[in-house]
Design goal:
Number of strands: 24
Strand content: 5-15%
Number of helices: 52
Helix content: 55-70%
Distance between the termini: 126 Å
Shape: globular
Radius of gyration: 41 Å
Structural class: alpha/beta
């Protein structure tokens, strides 16, 4: 045996050589042994397959990439094995000793790859290659191969080392490939067995586009070339959803939902007590994710090849050798970067695809659950919580993909980096590591302080936005009062508190930036300082290997705490989702059997074949199934309703009418009894549920379109006239919750949906209360009891007396019990009216009733008048409201200049200079290190170690100082810009004319002062700081590389040209994709929140599948956008990384060329070359980061652009040359002289050549139809709208000569809608603090609200926003008290009694008549009774004065207009 071992391992111990395992042992055991086992497995599997099954075709067609990997990788492996044999032969040929173990190892490797190639060609290759045994072995074999390579690496020659590394890399690649393909094939087979028809249909449905990745060549897939057509279109035009990439079949939301739902059902079956979404996700996607982990291991390991090869290259340069090893190392360095680029992008691509699958799986699962959980079960969760599940928890759970692999990857990276540092500088690295680790808790403490400051800032921000919203909502009233300046000052106080917390946050952020930026410098100085103080000498290879390792180490160290946080968040979110998804699902009344007495019956009892609904001893509650059944909404209710009957369900508010309908629908929790409902159901809730979409979509509700039935439905529900008046008719788009429809139109639209559906049972919850008397009569006779509903069972909750009288059965509910049940003939109507609210229909005149009943086939004309106004009003608004400007393309340079002005010129210069000096000191630090290394190696050291260390410390101190200056300058500059932008924007808005606010929606203005300002406050300075750092960093790298390698200057211009072309090509598409991404995301959350509101309606109509299909469409579009965006970013990332790899290869090759002493030019010392290569390594990430930060900055600068738009809005004319006396006007004489007023030049005059005089101290009423110009008189008087021509005199003084705010403060007004703001009552009545308490109480007593105020708590009580703590009447009286406190001679009342009851209106006018004597009172009135006792009235018609005079005199004149108005109002 010993002789045999001596033959195989001559001149070498077989196992241990004194320090480690011998080369012979490792070659035989970890090389030859593994290869023999692999060969045996392949051969055994091959012959077993041949004898057992014969040649069979593959079940699944292999794709081009799969074939490429399976055939191409073994071929390369065989070639490399031959190359190894050649190296061994060459070594022996050169008379060098070679042991037999080397020959054995090389030949066995060749045999393995040859076997694979041979068996891959046979018909049953897939049974051999993808067998479980071989796949598992191919995971184990590369791991052992890596162990062998690591132990033998230091002793190998460069050429052999590179070949050995490539062999191991190929083994890893092949092992990963066959395992991934096997998992894919098995999942495909499972899906075929599970639902072949569904698979087939889904592929047909997508039009065959899903095979995009399969059909592309492996080169196109590796380089992401398949995105090129999209990017070409993005350069020349705006992209649309049709231009996006088609998603692969396995990423289609429908197939993802099928996979996750089957896994979730398995969870519910196997672990019903505590099902876990996390386990379900692992079951669905776990193997794919684990195989991605293998790819990450390879990627991370190759990341460390760079520093090791750098070390070898610099050692080679130090030795000054002239062998070809230098070229091999230089090329290897470049190749390593290229391989890492491909692996990095492929890992990111496949991880992104998996995340997209996860996201669509979770979102569809949540949506599907919402459709199937009844309202009682859902009561455990608020709508806000469920929306958070979809928006926040889904994303957090998806982020598990990043965090989970990082939990082992980051410690692995840290561990390997520390081990490699130890090999270079022994224990000296601990000092640098200690500094870094010490800074982690410091950063965490700062982060906690930032979180506290952010929370306080957000509170103040919320208050500021609330105040801003209040200001914008009531701007017209505030301008009339002359209060806009005091409101803006209050707003500025809130803003200053917000800025105070923002400043704290920004300066803490600056400390974070400082510590982050100085860590690498501190790490190097502490490590190298301790290393030299320990008596060691620095050399170039060690120093620059360490610098490369520092850069590798810092990011994982800082990221690890956040990864752990992300993991915790993901687990918490998955638990929250599990709790929601495990809720019991809704059970339909039809077709479900319950074993207990509390159930929905599946079969109708034999004794009652004609019954539509049976409710037997039912008790219901709104609590969920896992809560005790408390607060029963129905108590032992028993009902039997015949098919085709019309049932009226009546009762007081809260008696259980709606609960009865909900219990029949299965929405309430059934505690006792059983319910049966025969046939299909249609349901109209009390608050009509309207979809965002067209009128037709709302009525059809997923059903097919029948033109005849559709037309009849519109007529029956009195919708045909309304639709005719709408622009676009029934294809007009209805906003969210039917915002552009009146309440009556919403009710009739929901009713039309039920009528068109034609279900057997129709449930209507109080549909008649939302419409007026005539329309109620029409739809009762033509829709509810019309021909379309013949033979249907109708349940109507109502207060309508006529509907009750026409019912077949009346059910009276009282506190959850059936109080009375019988026919309408037997029901005493008089007893019902005691608790029923008075019905409009009964109060209408006999003529109206007759007109409706006499001709049931034609609707009365009057009914459409109110609807006509409502339908047309938004159309008019759309014409007047200006379309928001949206700029396209790049942000103009002027916007950047304006932002620099906001920051301040001095601060801008300080920021730029500090950034330059910071980078210069960093570069100086590294240059000094390289100089120190070179002088040490050449033996020319003239200074002590302490001198070199002192200079290094000086550079470090300078770098730290300028880093701190830059960080704090940026924080200060950002704050200055935020303050100036807000102040100027607010000032411009405050001084804008009312017309601007009429033309611009408040939400649009508020958007500038909330989200845009938040961007300017917070994210813009942050991203600009990163942009500047990246730009200066790239500049520093370019200068150093040009200094070290002169030839790099030759490359600089071509490289910049390529980079600029790449970034232009990418940014053009990226902008469009980002726009599409935001557009495609909105419908998901909109449709989800909409569905949450209407789940009971959807379930009643059995339309779950229709809505789920619509949601799938939204998700599919979002998936396509995200997928395209991911591929586009990876397309760029790969090209930038390849650019970086080229730079690294070029510098390394130039260094090797320059190291040959025979050449006339030397390309730098080893120290400088090491510096250049360590600078070239991070250039890839810097280029990518620069582009990202530039794109983000451009996006954030749009907020500045939008703010600048509103700094250029027209301003109100403030001028006026006259200074008025404090007691002006003292008479109150008002004179209009030929006044013409236009709201817009394109519109007709609102007031046309109007002339009248109002005597001082008189009370005048202004009346007229809508649009006559009544409010325009006050607009002209208060100069809210500049008059086109003419003049207005007050006490003989032309008001255009009086400063506008002076004018408004001397006139008093009570607005149509009472205005109270959030603050004390004293502030509401007297914000300028001009009156004492006695005077305020006196004004309140005059207005009859003193007692109410005293009961509420006095003048210091807090008035809530909008004054909701007071009734409408009380608010109006408080506004009158406010006007009386002004002590003005002119009081204007703008329809202030229009929204109050008659009693309050009478009280107001009594107060005005008695307390305002001697004042000129101008009242704009709707009620004739309001003006009957006034001194004079003005009747306006289309902006002209139609009539003027004393109301009593005009009333007696039958030919007067006023007399005809009075007659019309009394009819």
């Amino acid at each position: 045996m010993d002789d045999f071992l001596a033959l195989i391992c001559p001149n070498s111990p077989f196992i241990w050589n004194g320090k480690r395992y011998s080369d012979c042992f490792e070659d035989i055991l970890l090389g030859v042994g593994l290869n023999i086992v692999t060969t045996i497995i392949i051969v055994v599997l091959g012959f077993k397959q041949k004898s057992g099954r014969g040649v069979q075709g593959s079940d699944v067609q292999m794709t081009v990439p799969e074939k490429s990997v399976l055939y191409f990788v073994p071929a390369i492996g065989a070639c490399l094995s031959v190359l190894e044999i050649i190296f061994v032969w060459k070594k022996e040929h050169n008379s060098q000793f070679v042991g037999y173990h080397k020959w054995f190892y090389s030949c066995s490797e060749l045999i393995v790859w040859t076997n694979i190639i041979l068996f891959s060609k046979c018909g049953s290759s897939h049974y051999i290659i993808f067998s479980r045994v071989l796949c598992f072995w191919w995971i184990l074999k590369p791991i052992l191969g890596v162990f062998r390579l690591v132990t033998t690496f230091p002793s190998l020659e460069v050429s052999v080392c590179i070949v050995e590394s490539l062999v191991v890399l190929l083994s890893i690649t092949y092992g990963t490939a066959i395992n991934v393909i096997r998992v894919k094939r098995e999942s495909f087979k499972r899906s075929l067995l599970g639902d072949p028809l569904l698979s087939y249909d889904s592929s047909l449905e997508e039009g065959g586009h899903h095979d995009l990745e399969t059909n592309e060549s492996i080169w196109d897939l590796m380089t992401f070339k398949f995105i090129a057509p999209v990017m070409n279109r993005g350069v020349v035009k705006q992209l649309d959803s049709e231009d996006l990439l088609q998603i692969p079949t396995n990423m289609a939301p429908s197939s993802c939902h099928d996979i996750i739902s089957s896994c979730w059902r398995a969870q519910l079956t196997n672990d019903a007590s505590k099902p876990s979404l996390f386990r379900a996700l692992c079951s669905a996607y776990g193997w794919s994710y684990l195989y991605l982990g293998l790819l990450k291991v390879i990627n991370d390991c190759i990341g460390f090849a760079g520093p090791l090869l750098l070390n070898k290259l610099i050692q080679f340069l130090q030795q000054g050798s002239v062998t070809s090893d230098g070229y091999l190392l230089a090329v290897s360095l470049g190749l390593t970067s290229i391989i890492k680029s491909f692996l990095d992008t492929q890992y990111s691509f496949r991880l992104a695809k998996l995340k997209l699958k996860l996201r669509s799986s979770i979102m569809t699962l949540i949506y599907d659950k919402c459709l199937r959980v009844n309202l009682a079960e859902r009561s455990k969760f608020t709508n806000g919580e469920i929306q958070t599940f979809m928006s926040v928890d889904a994303d957090r759970t998806v982020n598990l993909c990043n965090s989970f692999h990082d939990t082992w990857s980051l410690p692995l990276q840290i561990g390997v980096a520390l081990y490699l540092l130890y090999t270079q500088v022994k224990f000296a690295f601990v000092s640098g590591l200690a500094i870094t680790i010490l800074l982690i808790p410091v950063n965490k403490w700062i982060s906690q302080l930032i979180a506290i400051a952010t929370e306080q800032m957000m509170k103040e921000k919320d208050e500021r936005i609330r105040r801003t919203g209040e200001l914008l909502t009531y701007i017209r009233t505030l301008k009339m009062y002359g209060w806009e300046l005091i409101f803006s000052s209050w707003l500025m106080e809130t803003r200053s508190l917000e800025v105070k917390h923002l400043a704290t946050r920004k300066y803490l952020d600056a400390w974070c930036v400082f510590f982050w930026a100085t860590t690498p410098t501190l790490f190097s100085i502490f490590t190298f300082g301790l290393f030299t103080l320990m008596g060691n000498q620095l050399d170039a290879a060690m120093v620059f290997t360490c610098l490369a390792l520092f850069n590798t180490l810092i990011s994982p160290l800082n990221s690890f705490p956040w990864v752990i946080n992300g993991l915790i968040d993901a687990f918490i979110s998955s638990r929250r989702l599990s709790r929601f998804l495990s809720c019991p699902e809704h059970r339909s009344n039809v077709g479900d059997t319950g074993s207990s007495s509390s159930s929905f019956l599946s079969k109708q009892p034999d004794s009652s074949q004609r019954l539509a609904i049976i409710v037997q001893d039912v008790s219901c509650t709104w609590s969920s199934s896992d809560e005790p059944p408390l607060n029963m909404v129905l108590n032992h209710v028993t009902l039997s309703l015949s098919k085709g009957s019309f049932v009226a369900i009546i009762g007081e508010v809260g008696s259980g009418k709606s609960s009865l309908l909900y219990s029949v629908l299965g929405e309430a929790q059934l505690a006792h009894g059983y319910i049966y409902c025969d046939g299909s159901v249609a349901y109209v809730p009390q608050v009509p549920w309207i979809l965002s979409g067209t009128v037709r979509d709302n009525i059809l509700f997923g059903k097919s379109y029948d033109p005849v039935r559709y037309r009849d439905t519109l007529q029956a529900c009195a919708l045909d006239v309304d639709i005719e008046l709408m622009v676009g008719h029934d294809m007009v788009y209805i906003g969210e919750k039917g915002l552009n429809l009146s309440g009556g139109q919403r009710a009739r639209l929901a009713l039309a949906r039920a009528v068109y559906d034609g279900s057997d049972v129709i449930m209507l919850d109080d549909v008649l209360s939302a419409v007026d008397a005539q329309v109620a009569h029409w739809i009762l006779h033509n829709a509810i009891l019309g021909p379309l509903m013949q033979g249907k069972t109708i349940l109507l909750c109502t207060h309508n007396v006529q509907a009750i009288s026409l019912a077949d059965v009346v059910v009276v509910m009282d506190k959850g019990h059936v109080k009375w049940l019988g026919s309408s003939a037997a029901f005493p109507i008089s007893s019902y009216t005691r608790f029923s609210p008075s019905n409009d229909l009964d109060l209408t005149s006999k003529n109206h009733r007759e007109s409706c009943s006499s001709d049931s086939s034609s609707k009365p004309k009057e009914q459409s008048l109110p609807e006509k106004e409502i339908v047309h009003s938004p159309e008019i608004a759309e014409e007047i409201v200006e379309v928001e400007l949206r700029k396209e393309g790049k942000v103009e340079i002027g916007v950047y200049k304006n932002y620099a002005v906001f920051i301040g010129q001095f601060v801008t210069v300080a920021i730029c200079l500090s950034a330059i000096f910071m980078q210069a000191s960093r570069n100086g630090n590294d240059l000094w290190l390289s100089y120190w290394v070179d002088t040490t190696e050449t033996g020319q050291t003239v200074h002590s170690v302490s001198f070199y260390l002192a200079i290094l410390c000086l550079f470090c101190a300078v770098n730290s100082f300028f880093t701190l200056v830059r960080a704090f300058s940026f924080a200060f500059g950002g704050l200055q810009a935020a303050i100036k932008v807000h102040n100027r924007l607010l000032s411009k808005l405050i001084n804008a004319p009312v017309r601007f606010f009429d033309q611009t929606p408040g939400g649009r203005i508020l958007n500038r002062l909330s989200s845009d300002l938040y961007t300017i406050d917070d994210s813009l300075p942050f991203i600009m700081n990163i942009l500047l750092a990246n730009f200066i960093g790239l500049l520093g790298i370019a200068i150093i590389l040009s200094y070290v390698q002169v030839f790099f200057l030759v490359l600089l211009l071509p490289l910049w040209y390529i980079y600029s072309k790449l970034q232009f090509f990418y940014r053009s598409t990226s902008r469009e994709l980002r726009r599409l991404d935001s557009v495609s995301r909105s419908p998901i959350y909109t449709s989800f929140s909409e569905t949450l509101d209407g789940t009971s309606t959807i379930r009643a109509f059995k339309s779950e599948d229709f809505f789920f299909a619509k949601f799938i469409e939204h998700i599919t579009l979002y998936q396509k956008t995200s997928y395209t965006e991911t591929v586009a970013s990876l397309w760029l990332s790969l090209r930038l990384q390849l650019l970086g790899a080229f730079i690294i290869s070029f510098i390394a090759l130039m260094a090797v060329v320059g190291s040959h002493r025979s050449l006339p030019i030397n390309f730098g010392t080893p120290g400088l070359v090491g510096l250049a290569l360590s600078y070239a390594a991070p250039i890839v990430s810097l280029l990518g980061s620069f582009l990202t930060s530039f794109t983000e900055t451009e996006k954030e600068m749009v907020s500045v652009e939008r703010a600048l738009q509103y700094m250029d809005i027209p301003q109100e004319e403030q001028g006026g040359c006259l200074n008025v006396n404090p007691d002006w006007p003292n008479l109150g004489v008002i004179e209009f002289q030929n006044v013409t007023l236009k709201y817009m030049p394109s519109l007709a005059p609102a007031i046309c050549n109007l002339s009248f005089t109002i005597a001082g101290g008189t009370q005048v009423g202004i009346i007229g139809r809508t649009g006559a110009g009544k409010s325009s008189v006050l607009n002209a008087l208060f100069r809210l709208t500049p008059i086109y021509s003419g003049s207005i005199l007050v006490d003989g003084m032309d008001i255009k000569n009086v400063p506008v705010r002076e004018l408004r403060t001397h006139l008093a007004i009570v607005p149509q809608s009472p205005f109270l703001f959030n603050g004390s009552l004293r502030e509401n009545l007297d914000p300028f603090k001009m009156s004492d308490d006695l005077k305020i109480w006196d004004a309140l007593e005059k207005c009859h609200v003193k007692e109410e105020v005293e009961e509420a708590g006095g003048l210091d009580i807090l008035v809530k926003e909008g004054g909701i703590s007071f009734s409408v009447g009380q608010r109006q009286l408080l506004c009158l008290a406010r006007a009386l406190l002004k002590s003005s001679k002119v009081l204007c009342l703008d329809e202030c009694t229009a929204n109050v009851d008659i009693q309050t209106a009478s009280l107001l006018h009594t107060t005005i008549s008695s307390k305002c004597k001697g004042m000129t009172v101008i009242t704009i009135a709707h009620r004739i009774s309001t003006v009957l006792n006034m001194d004079s009235i003005l009747i306006l018609d289309h902006g002209n004065l139609a009539e003027q005079g004393n109301p009593k005199v005009l009333l007696n004149d039958e030919s007067s207009l006023f007399s005809s108005f009075v007659k019309a109002s009394s009819m």
